[in-house]
Amino acid sequence: SAFAYLSATVPYLVENGWMIFGGAIINGIAAGFMYPAQGQYLIENSSPQTAARNVGIFWTMFRASTLWGNLFVYYIFYGKQYIDQYTRRTVLYFFMGINILAIVSLIILPKSSSDCKTEGYSSSKTAKKCWAILKSRKMLWLMFSFSYAGLQQAFGDGVYSITIGYTMALGNSAKELVAVSGIIMSIGGLIGGVCIIVFATRIRRNRY
């Protein structure tokens, strides 16, 4: 899945529309494997007392990565009304390098040391159990927040920033404002992650 994430970046170097769309599809499928695996690893290395704190730390690191990326883009795009090929490739090579470093970090992750490992199931039993959980009252309520989070992320990451870049009324600063919007959203995510860490004890105590 980590290698497949490169498929979202490499096609932009080729500048082929079909490859870009195909890479986006592959990236989406890879994310479907990556996020559950990360959650599994996080669970196996957390206890009931540290789960909320560790989730907050993970989220803070995740949002911090978008902050540094947008700061780099802001520096590269500063003062440019049009993004030339050299600038575009500089950004893409930078993100490809970060992607490769992330792949290496995943490869060298230590095995889970927790004694509280989840029980192993066959594929069919796992599917049945997931379906049973999906129909539960609590999960049905959670679907509202999950759906909102998905729509918000799709709009924030895939629509909002792009529309800023193509808003002619913003003048020559439109391109750098794309990075500014990403920086502000990253700061908001960081604040949310810090709140989870600070209020981890209260979150754990008030389970619904």
Automatic annotation (TrEMBL):
The chain crosses the membrane at residues 17-35, 56-78, 90-109, 178-200. GO terms for cellular component: membrane. It comes from Homalodisca liturata. It is found in: Membrane. This is UNC93-like protein MFSD11. Pfam families: UNC-93. Its main location: membrane. The keyword Cell inner membrane does not apply. Keywords: Glycoprotein, Membrane, Transmembrane, Transmembrane helix. Belongs to the unc-93 family. The lineage of its organism: Eukaryota, Metazoa, Ecdysozoa, Arthropoda, Hexapoda. InterPro entries: Ion_channel_UNC-93, MFS_trans_sf, UNC-93-like_regulator.
